Amino acid sequence: MATADDADIELTLQFLRDMANLRVDDALAVVADDIVHKNGDLPTVRGKARFARVMRRINSPLVHFDAEITNIAAADGVVLNERIDLLRVGPLRLRFWVCGRFTVRDGLITEWVDYFDMVDVAKAVVRGVVGLVIPRAVRPIHSTLTADAAASLPAASTAAAGTADSAAIDLTTDFLRDLALGRVDDAVALVDDDLLYQNVGLPDVRGKQRFTSVMRGLESPRVGFDVEIDEAVAADGVVLNERIDELRFGPLRLRFWVFGRFEVRDGRIVVWRDHFDTFNMVKALGRGVVGIALPRALKPIRSVTGA
C-alpha cells in the first residue's frame, strides 16, 4: 500500500520529470506560492512568481537539464535525493553530482535545496568544452526523468522507510556519534571489512584496515569531529543524510554542509560517501579563523552527541 512518503517521492520525481521534459507549467502546478529555492551558494529564490521566471530561463530548447537519480528516500515530508545532473547549454554538456532536499506540505513543494561542489562544476565545464570536440569526454547519464529513459527507479529504491531502514538510520547515527566522541574502535566495529569510504573529489579509501588508520587521527587531543544531522531518511538499506560537520584543529573550528550516503548490509556499513563543496570549505576556514578571535562568530551546532 502506498504511503504518504511514497506520494512525496512520486510528486518530487514527477516535478523533476516535468522540468526535464520542458513541461514547466506542469512542474509549477505542484509548487507552493511561497516556495523557497536554494541552489548552492547562489542567491535564494523566494516565491512562485520569481521561481517561475528562473525555471523558464533554464528550461528551454537551448538550455535544459536531465538527471540520473542514484538514490531517493523520504520521511515526514522531506525527500532527499542523490543525483548526477546533466545541464545542456546549446551543444555544451555539463555533468556533475547534485544532492537535493525537497520539502512537501499538503501535496505541494514548499522548499527545494540543491547542494553541489563548485570545483566539480568547474571540472564539468572543462569536460564539456573538451566534449565539443571529443564527445566521449562527457560520459552519458542513465536518465531517470526523460520520456525515453530506459528504466525508472527500482521499486525498492522508492519504498518508504520500514523497520529495517529505521535500524539503518539508527546504525549510521550511532556510527557518527561514536566518531564525534572519539570512540574510533566502536565506530569501526560497525563497518564492513570491504568498506568503501568516499569523499567525492578526493581519493577513495578501501577496506576496514585503511579506514581505521584514517579515523585514528580523531583520537588526537588536537583534532576533533562533530556533526549535526538535520535530516536522515532511508530506503532499501541506503541512508541519506543532510548534515553540518565540524572539524577541529586545535582552536580552529571548520563548520560546513555535508550530504552523506551510507549503504548498510547485514548490520554493517559497506559504503560511506560524503558530498561537500570546496568553496564552502574555504568560507568555513575564513569563519574559523575569525572564530579564534571572536568565538561568537561561529554558530553552535546541535551535536549528535547531545552535548
What labels describe this entry?
single chain, 307 residues, alpha+beta, Nuclear Transport Factor 2, Chain: A, 2 domains, 6-stranded mixed sheet, globular
Characterise the protein shown here.
The protein has 307 residues and is α+β, with helices and mostly antiparallel strands. The protein has two domains: 151 residues, Nuclear Transport Factor 2, Chain: A; 135 residues, Nuclear Transport Factor 2, Chain: A (Roll). Helices cover 31% and strands 38% of the residues. The chain has eight helices and twelve strands. Strands 2-1-6-5-4-3 form a six-stranded mixed β-sheet. Strands 8-7-12-11-10-9 form a six-stranded mixed β-sheet. A hairpin with a 5-residue loop joins strand 1 and strand 2. The longest helix has 18 residues. The chain is globular. 35% of the residues are buried.
In what range is the share of β-strand residues?
35-45%
Element-by-element helix/strand order: HHEEHEEEEHHHEEHEEEEH
Helix and strand content put the structural class at alpha+beta
The largest beta-sheet arranges its strands as 2-1-6-5-4-3
What's the gyration radius in Å? 20 Å
Q: What is the CATH third-level topology name of the largest domain?
A: Nuclear Transport Factor 2, Chain: A
Helical residue percent band: 25-40%
User: How many helices?
Assistant: 8
CATH class of the largest domain: Alpha Beta
Mean pLDDT across residues = 91
The shape, in one word, is globular
Return the domain count. 2
Largest sheet report: 6 strands, mixed
The CATH level-2 architecture of the largest domain is identified as: Roll
* Total E-strand runs: 12
Measured distance between first and last alpha carbons: 40 Å
Give unreliable regions as ranges: 154-161
